[in-house]
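Holo model, inosine-5'-diphosphate. Inputs:
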Amino acid sequence: MFNDYTFSIIKPNSVRTGKTGPILAMINEAGFQIAAMKMIRLTKDQAESFYDIHKGKPFFNDLIDFMTSGPVVVMILKHDNAVESFRHLIGSTDPAKAEEGTIRHEFAVNVQMNAIHGSDSPENADRESHFFFSRVEVFGME
Ligand code: IDP
Ligand code: MG
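Output:
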């Protein structure tokens, strides 16, 4: 079941510059269904916990400052082979390496402000979805 779903965050740089709509259009165009969605502002604790696998890396503190710098849109997305399909749609972490037509190629500013998050495995998609959404906020999940 979980491989049908992935978790995504439209990052603060995208929301701030009015790219939420255009990014959602690309997600829709690629055939993903929105199973859950809300706009929130992450606390420092939430951002640190969400990114705890990156704790200790040189970019960690800047990443937390960035992710808490403004509202984000969090979503659960449904698609066949969702995790891999969505990573393909968003493109490489570093937008300089992201292929044309990917969300990061279109909307990322740099490797940190890279427009959007996508889970990297079905296990993380499940963990990240439950981190932000309760059962009553999720639709279309059997
Ligand atoms: P991903 O988002 O493509 O899965 P990760 O390696 O999991 O990439 O890194 C998480 C986030 O941390 C990235 O999306 C980006 O915002 C930030 N990040 C990763 N590597 C760097 C870096 O070398 N410099 C600055 N920020 C980085
Ligand atoms: Mg990652």
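The radius of gyration is 14 Å. Residues 2-133 form a domain with the Alpha-Beta Plaits fold (CATH 3.30.70.141).
Archived with the compound record.
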